[in-house]
Each structure stands twice: as structure tokens, then as C-alpha cells.
UniProtKB/TrEMBL annotation:
Its cofactor is pyridoxal 5'-phosphate. One of its GO terms (biological process) is glycine biosynthetic process, by transamination of glyoxylate. This is Aminotransferase class V-fold PLP-dependent enzyme. It comes from Paenibacillus validus. It comes from the Bacteria. It holds the Pfam family Aminotran_5. The modification N6-(pyridoxal phosphate)lysine is found at K198.
Length: 414
């Protein structure tokens, strides 16, 4: 019989756009004993998690809870529950994850209208607003922080127009939640989906989301399941177009997260512990301090990269604070560089997708990975690796420039 070794994963410095390192407090929380999902001790933890999510999403929405599954599970739950076949959906795309929104909306039977702009930039909100007036969609779905290109889309003006025209606005804030402001209510966002494995620094496996009463009204109008598909345990259902997924039916999920606790799936106990602990850490640090910490480490990293002589990728005016993209120098094998960083220094950075594959490296400064030690460690290692690959850089200038940023930084860093 084949024997398998004890599990012993290496201790990495993870500087990718997710998954990132996890605070030991979160790992500890995951090792606590299982509670039954209807045990009042557990349902209290669920309620506390909802309360903390409202604060992180900056909303007074009643509904703020996690969907079990990776971040796209929250996106899929939102779109599947809101889009009826034939609904017109507008999707402005400025990177890979815009295409994910498009693919999911297509699977929901939406009539899709897209708007595309060059990768490395974002939309002038006016352009999106013109498309909204032209296409008259029922729903607009857009990414806030596009990790494939390292760009961030301003949303407040788009939110205002969607509200005026009674259009639902669904936002993928998977990368931004917990790292930079995501002002659900102030920006007029109807549905916001976050991710755990990025700036919240919790393992992948849950997708917290929030939605307001406008979105809820649409979801509840669809609360029906065709005869034959209905779970006999579900309550009486009204007429409408059925939500095609059981697992991602937000009307059923909200019943489960409501005081009624109507049985749906079996909650992922250890992930709930992890999310609760991760959110507690975020709120203990304070949102403003946390955002400033992300901004400071980003500034130090960018100063280091540029002083070393490497080129940043993308329009600086719309840079995503937690993802920094570097142009791979001409003639250099980007994958060989990544392999050397991992093998010799235990540091992981990311490549990119589609038209950017082989063209850029992406460095994440997210959550628990977003630390002075990690930034300096990465810059020192990158300088060494660039020298090994014969790239003409200003040796040691990167680390010095980052140190200078930290000296001047106003935020206390680790
Ligand atoms: C912006 C964005 N949206 C959605 C996703 C999908 O998340 P997951 O891979 O956890 O399903 C990712 C993952 O990296 C992402 O960066």
C-alpha cells in the first residue's frame, strides 16, 4: 500500500493577488471544534459575522452574509438570482474578470451588451453612463478591482445613474474589500461581492456578499421552483421565473441566514470561524488604518520597482492599490524568474492572463501579506534575480527607495 507523507507545506512569502498569507489567528480559529449549524452558539457566530460584514461593506443593508464557495460563487449567486432569461445586462469589461461576469450572465440567459476598453486602463464613468442610456439594461455588472491588469474602476457616478434609472448595479469587489474603500451605500451599489482570500486574508472558500432591498425585491419576485423540481421542505412559493440554481438561490440563502433559519445547505463551520476571525482582525485594525497600510506598502513597492529600473504597467491614474504590475524586461523569461523567486527565496508572485501572458508580473500587497517585511524581502530578492538573469538594474536601489518611503510614512507599519 502506498504511504503518504505527513502534510508539511512550505512557509511561503505570498505576494500574488490571492490567495495570500493568513494571520495565525485565523488558522487557529479554523482548528476549533465543530458546532451544529442550528446550535444557538453557532447561529450567534453567524449573526456576528453578518454584523461585521455590514461594517466592512460600509452598508446598512439587512443582507450581508457569505456564500460557501470561492469568490465566483458569490458572483454566480448574485447573477443567477437576479437575471431572468432575456434580461438585458450591460457589462463594461477592462480585464479578465469582466469576461467572467459576461460568461456567468450568458449562462443565466441574459441578453448581453458589452463595452470594452484597453487593458491597463479603466472606463471614464461618462462612457459607461452613455452606454447605460443607449442600452437601457435591467442590470449593470462591473468589476471594481481588476486583478488581471491591476486597475480600479471609479463607481460612484455609475451608481448614481443606475439608481436614477432604476437599474440594478452588481459589483465584483473581490479584490478590493478590506484593502481600499468600498462604499456600498454611499456609491449606490445594489449588490457587492467580496472575496476572502485577498485583502480579508482568510483562506479561499467563502464569498461574502451584500445586497439591498431593491435587489431583494427582484430576488423574491422570482421565488418559485417549477413543479417537480421543488424540494418538499421549501415553503410555499409564488409565481415568477424560477431561479435556476438551488445552491445559489439567494432567496433560500437569506432564509437560512434569517432568524427563521430555514434549512438549506450545511454551513461550512470552520470557514465561518475563519471569516469571523478575519473580520474581527480587520475591524480591530480599523478600516481607515488598514486602507492606509495598503497604500503605504503599495507606495514603497512602486518606489522600489521604479528605482531598480523596472517599468510599471498600466495607467497610473487608475492603479489598483493592492496589485502592482511590472513589465517583464525584453528577452526575459518571466516564468523562469518566478520559478527562481519561489525556489531560492520562497516568494511567490503571479503572471497574468490572455494578452498579458508573458508580458507582465503581478505583485499583490493584500491583507496579512501586505507588510513591510514582505515588500523589502521581495525587492531584495527581485534585485538578486534580475542580476542573475543579466537585466541591467540599479542594484540595491530598490530596497533603499522603499526604506525611504517607510521612513517618511505616517502610518505605523509592522
Ligand atoms: C477580481 C476577481 N474577481 C473574481 C475572482 C474569482 O475568484 P475565485 O477564483 O475565488 O472564484 C477573482 C480571483 O482571482 C478576482 O481577482
Amino acid at each position: 500500500m502506498k504511504m503518504y507523507k505527513d502534510l508539511s507545506p512550505s512557509l511561503r512569502t505570498i505576494m500574488t493577488p490571492g490567495p495570500v498569507e493568513v494571520d495565525p489567528r485565523v488558522l487557529r480559529a479554523m482548528s476549533f471544534p465543530i458546532l451544529g449549524q442550528f446550535d444557538p452558539e453557532f447561529t450567534d457566530l453567524m449573526n456576528e459575522t453578518m454584523g461585521m460584514l455590514r461594517q466592512v461593506f460600509q452598508t446598512s443593508n439587512q443582507w450581508a452574509y457569505p456564500v460557501d464557495g470561492t469568490s465566483r460563487s458569490g458572483i454566480e449567486a448574485a447573477l443567477t438570482s437576479l437575471i431572468e432569461p432575456g434580461d438585458k445586462v450591460l457589462i463594461p469589461i477592462y480585464g479578465r474578470f469582466g469576461y467572467l461576469l459576461m460568461e456567468i450572465a450568458e449562462r443565466c440567459g441574459a441578453e448581453i451588451a458589452t463595452l470594452e476598453t484597453e487593458w491597463g486602463s479603466v472606463f471614464d464613468p461618462e462612457e459607461v453612463i452613455r452606454a447605460i442610456h443607449r442600452e437601457k439594461p435591467k442590470l449593470v455588472a462591473i468589476v471594481h478591482g481588476e486583478t488581471s491588469t491591476g486597475r480600479m474602476q471609479p463607481l460612484a457616478d455609475i451608481g448614481k445613474v443606475c439608481r436614477e434609472l432604476d437599474i440594478l448595479l452588481v459589483v465584483d469587489a473581490v479584490a478590493t474589500i478590506g484593502g481600499t474603500p468600498v462604499e456600498t451605500d454611499a456609491w449606490g451599489l445594489d449588490v457587492v461581492i467580496g472575496g476572502t482570500q485577498k485583502c480579508l486574508s482568510v483562506p479561499s472558500g467563502m464569498s461574502p456578499l451584500t445586497y439591498n432591498s431593491r435587489a431583494e425585491a427582484k430576488i423574491l419576485r422570482r421565488k418559485t421552483i417549477e413543479k417537480g423540481l421543488r424540494d418538499p421542505m421549501s415553503q410555499t412559493l409564488s409565481a415568477g421565473t424560477a431561479i435556476r440554481s438551488n445552491y445559489f438561490d439567494l432567496s433560500q440563502l437569506q432564509d437560512y441566514w434569517s432568524p427563521a433559519r430555514l434549512n438549506h445547505h450545511t454551513e461550512a463551520t470552520s470557514m465561518l470561524y475563519a471569516l469571523r476571525e478575519g473580520l474581527r482582525i480587520v475591524l480591530e485594525e480599523g478600516l481607515e488604518v488598514r486602507f492606509a497600510r495598503h497604500a503605504l506598502n503599495e507606495k514603497a513597492l512602486m518606489a522600489g520597482i521604479q528605482s531598480m529600473g523596472l517599468q510599471l504597467y498600466g495607467d497610473p491614474k487608475c492603479k489598483l492599490p493592492m496589485v502592482t504590475c511590472i513589465r517583464i524586461p525584453e528577452g526575459i523569461d518571466g516564468e523562469a524568474v518566478r520559478a527562481m523567486l519561489l525556489e531560492q527565496f520562497g516568494i511567490e508572485i503571479a503572471s497574468s492572463f490572455g494578452p498579458l501572458k508573458g508580458k507582465i508580473w503581478r505583485i499583490g500587497t493584500m491583507g496579512f501579506s501586505c507588510r513591510k517585511k514582505n515588500v523589502l524581502h521581495l525587492l531584495g530578492a527581485l534585485e538578486a534575480v534580475m542580476i542573475c538573469f543579466g537585466v541591467p538594474i540599479h542594484a540595491a536601489a530598490g530596497v533603499q527607495a522603499a526604506l525611504q518611503v517607510y521612513r517618511e510614512g505616517e502610518v505605523p507599519v509592522e
